[in-house]
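Q&A FORM
Asked by: J.P.
Topic: structure of Thiol-disulfide oxidoreductase ResA

PROVIDED:
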Amino acid sequence: MRKVLLSLAVLALAVPAYAADHYNKKVKVGDQAPDFSGIPAVAPNGEQTSLTLGDIKEDVVVLVFLANHCPAVLAADDRIIEFTSEYKDKPVKVVAVAVSNADEDKLPGIKNHAKEKKINYTYGHDETQAIGKAYGASNTPHFFVLDKERKIRYIGAMDDNVMNETKVTKHYLKDAVDALLAGNTPPVEETRPAGCGISYAK
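REPLIED BY: S.T.
REPLY: Here is the structure written out as tokens.
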């Protein structure tokens, strides 16, 4: 029953694109990205580490909010891994954070999931949920692309069909990152994040 309810919560419709500041009311494209530091995390080699924005040296940062209990995240897992592999030799750093306090989303669950899926990006858990609130993350997966000055340049979905990769026709995240690497403005700056809603403690 829990899985059924979670599936019903997933927004799997086509993802429309809009000009910046349409969906996220906490931050907008062009804003300085909220800082974060010391978030307990699991590195790609399985060792425990921490996530600190200031420690990232790459020109482009892709921050994605995930939750391992979410069907939309499970559907996008392989795509995120493939994306990370595609940019491993470029100045792009992919990092993920869960803010859910479900067992699957806490650090031990993340470590198990990372081992099972051979996840190739650093994946942390923020039990305070502060990073999610700061970025206005509303769904999982929810992507934020930061440029070299750590300004937000893209907010939203990875592509236009979170649940079915075979039906994807638009690659919003890839297009945004490629544009920044070329010194250009992303062609689409904000899309609706499709996936499971994030529950925040009051």
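FOLLOW-UP: Residues 1-20 have pLDDT under 50 and may be disordered.
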